[in-house]
Design goal:
The complex is a heterodimer of chains A (about 375) and B (about 325). Chain A is about 35% helix and about 20% strand. By secondary structure, chain A is α/β, with parallel strands linked by helices. In chain A, a hairpin with a 2-residue loop joins β4 (about 80-90) and β5 (about 90). Chain B has about 325 residues and is an all-alpha fold. Chain B is built from twelve helices and no strands. Chain B has helices at about 20-25, 30-35, 45-55, 60-80, 115-150, 155-170, 170-180, 185-215, 215-225, 230-265, 275-285, 295-320. In chain B, α4 crosses α12, α5 (about 115-150) runs antiparallel to α6 and α7 packs antiparallel against α8 (about 185-215). Chain B is elongated. The chains are: A alpha/beta (about 375), B mainly alpha (about 325). The interface between A and B is large, with 50 and 35 residues.
């Protein structure tokens, strides 16, 4: 694990900006009794080596299914990968045979799950579980694998790791178990780390520490990070690029500054506006009206149209696709010309103004969140 | 959670000194835990060790274990010195057998055999049949249930239909018929017959556990680090599924002992040149007319006591292995 620190240098020698993960038009459907759920419905994005991408969206928008599809952890059936290409390091991993995919998992792509409390096997010591991850991919003996486990526990900031490796998950707190999960994910020095809501199940104080840890380790190892979250504050401090998902689609794509300060899609605007901020004390909280559309019965036009305050003629009929029709990467007819309709300039300007207000209002808590994690750096993570 | 006399907290004083510290440290956040490093006990208890601890607090289970251990020891050790010899017929003083006395504490049979000798030698065979058929049923059941639960789909479907068939047939008659046609009156064939007919219960249990554990987060996590499916099934899921299986196996053992007695009683089981509790009972029937109650009473008591003890143990195991009964 000492080699971790040297990793970025090696990567520097290669082309650092080279694409590591390229997801093109991914569609994952679930065939269930009541019909077909298009959980992921034409999602495209890419991650460069060593870079960070945030995927945001509310529950059920397809964030986790996207991650599980990339890891190929979904049971097929009921799941079906209806179309799409996932290129990892230039290889199409959706068509790899299972045993080759297995060699990739953990070794090249690792994943951190949302629920640290249940993601460790209760009957084994944590040392055995990390060792197992190591021994799946590296030809090392039991003793050496255990030494590596101890080392990776040390790296994730667990005190007296020699003793901790002999403990069982039930003897650890949630934050510590998540550290163990991170240690396990890092034990084989993956090129891509997928973190699926890694802090959602944790205490607020522990959240900042875990995020700081993920960021530190990501920087030290030079791994790319795909961070799935519904927390825009987390996005603000952790990632370069952001993909906003709604109902199985990418609705907006951009750098973190673009998306958070000058959001384009009305949904992104709504997400930002619904973050409570200091300036709004005493006011009613903003909400996005309505609910996510029924997955069995998606609207024919824009998925967000039924909830959108800027809805106009083409929205319920024509489906805006982010990659079509030129314009900025946003799936909205306010930003691209709908067939037979001009962009309504007045409505467009109104939305831009409202979106910037929402972005500006939320920039305060974002920086506060940053400072919280900064003060925590002297903690056990350091 | 119900507080009963088996609850660990209620018996803090009796527990080993490390108990309180280990269980108390579970919920603390990382820093506090680290700060308490020196206090945290050195011993780390696995799930099995925790279960063992809960078992030790279960009074009835301990009583059951004690009785069973005593019976098993007696049944193994004493026959080494006093084997049952079929040809040895000493003859009784009284017709129908002699009553219990200092010389024969359980009395004698019609032929003057020592009933105590019958009970311990019979126990050896009865417990052997119970124990080994339990292991056979457990092994087959675990293998079939794991395969069904982990593969799912048509494999699961076929295996479970086989299990359904086993449940549908009248068990007792099949055993009697099988013992008549395949059995040669020896212990091994009876063990095989009982064992190979009682695995479906275990298979169902294991399959059900597999189906739910397959969806567990730790299974996904293990797959995400590249652990193979086979390894996940046998290294990750199976140990977590064993709790209810162990409980069911104890009950199966009690059942097998009763079954052996029953089959032998009807004359389909262990041949007469050997002795089991079942055929001891069968032979005692006629002597009851002469007022010889001890010949039937002691083997009968042995069966009842053993089955009761095993059921107590099963009860204790169920409480100890139930994850919800964790402190």
């Amino acid at each position: 694990m000492r080699a971790l620190a040297q990793q970025p240098v090696d990567l520097e020698a290669e082309d650092r900006s080279q694409t590591l993960l390229d997801v093109q038009d991914l569609r994952t459907h679930f065939h269930v009794m009541d019909g077909t759920v298009k959980a992921v419905d034409g999602v495209s994005f890419s991650i460069n080596r060593g870079e960070t991408l945030g995927i945001v969206g509310e529950s059920g928008c397809g964030k986790s299914v996207t991650a599980l599809t990339i890891m190929r952890l979904l049971d097929i059936p009921p799941a079906e990968i209806a179309s799409g290409v996932v290129l990892f390091d230039g290889r199409d991993i959706l068509s790899l045979p299972e045993d080759e995919m297995r060699r990739l998992r953990g070794n090249d792509i690792a994943m951190i799950f949302q629920e640290p409390m249940t993601s460790l096997n209760p009957v084994f010591t944590v040392g055995r579980q990390i060792s197992e991850a190591v021994r799946q991919h590296l030809r090392v003996g039991k003793r050496e694998a255990l030494d590596r486990s101890i080392e990776s526990l040390r790296i994730v900031g667990i005190n007296s790791p020699e003793r901790r490796v002999k403990q069982y998950p039930h003897e650890m707190s949630g934050g510590m178990r998540q550290r163990v999960m991170i240690a396990m994910a890092l034990s084989c020095e993956p090129k891509l780390l997928i973190a699926d809501e890694p802090t959602t199940a944790l205490d607020v104080t522990i959240q900042a520490q875990i995020l700081e840890l993920i960021r530190r380790i990501q920087q030290e190892t030079g791994a790319a990070l795909m961070l799935i979250t519904h927390d825009l504050g987390v996005v603000a401090e952790m990632v370069h690029d952001v993909v906003v998902m709604y109902a199985g689609r990418v609705v907006e794509h951009g750098t973190v500054d673009e998306v958070l300060l000058q959001p384009r899609h009305p949904y992104t605007e709504g997400l930002l506006a619904s973050i409570p901020s200091k300036g709004m004390r005493g006011n009613r909280l903003n909400v996005i009206k309505g609910t996510v559309p029924n997955p069995f019965n998606m609207p024919t036009g824009c998925n967000f149209a039924p909830r959108c305050p800027y809805r106009f003629e083409p929205c319920p009929e024509h489906d805006p696709r982010i990659e079509e029709g030129g314009g900025p990467p946003v799936a909205c007819w306010l930003w691209k010309k709908a067939p037979g309709h001009a962009i309504p300039q007045e409505l467009h300007d109104e939305q831009v103004a409202a979106a910037r207000r929402a972005g500006a209002a939320t920039s305060t808590p974002v920086s506060e969140l940053l400072s919280v994690s900064d003060t925590q750096q002297g903690g056990p993570a350091a | 959670m119900a507080v009963d006399d088996t609850h660990p907290r209620s018996s803090t004083g009796k527990g080993s000194p490390r108990t309180g510290q280990t269980s108390g440290s579970g919920a603390l956040p990382a820093e506090e835990l680290d700060a308490q490093d020196t206090e945290v006990a050195l011993a780390s208890l696995s799930q099995w060790q925790l279960a063992a601890r809960r078992f030790r607090r279960h009074r009835m289970a301990l009583l059951g274990l004690g009785i069973f251990a005593f019976m098993a020891t007696v049944a193994v050790v004493i026959p080494l010195f006093q084997p049952f010899i079929f040809h040895n017929i000493p003859g009784a003083v009284r017709p129908g057998g002699d009553a219990p006395s200092v010389e024969h504490i359980f009395g004698t049979t019609q032929e003057g055999r020592d009933v105590f000798n019958l009970v311990v030698n019979g126990g050896r065979i009865s417990l052997m049949v119970g124990g080994f058929s339990m292991f056979i049923a457990g092994f087959v059941g675990v293998v079939v249930g794991s395969i069904a639960g982990f593969s799912g789909g048509w494999v699961d479907n076929i295996l479970m239909r086989v299990v359904d068939v086993f449940f549908a047939i009248p068990f007792l008659f099949v055993i009697l018929v099988a013992a008549r046609f395949f059995g040669r009156g020896d212990v091994l064939s009876l063990i095989l017959i009982i064992g190979l007919l009682s695995w479906p219960l275990i298979a169902r249990l294991v399959r059900a556990s597999f189906l739910s554990l397959r969806e567990a987060d730790f299974v996904d996590a293990a797959r995400a680090v590249g652990v193979s499916k086979l390894r996940i099934a046998f290294r990750h899921i199976l140990p977590n599924a064993m709790g209810p299986v162990i409980v069911a196996m104890t009950l199966l053992m009690a059942n097998a002992i009763v079954l052996e007695a029953f089959v032998s009683f009807l004359g389909f089981g262990i041949r007469e040149t050997e002795v089991s509790w079942g055929n001891a009972l069968a032979n005692a029937q006629n002597a009851l007319r002469f007022g010889n109650w001890w010949w039937a009473f002691f083997p009968g008591m042995a069966i009842a006591l053993t089955v009761l003890a095993i059921n107590f143990m099963g009860d204790g195991l169920r409480d100890a292995l139930d994850p919800r009964s964790r402190e």
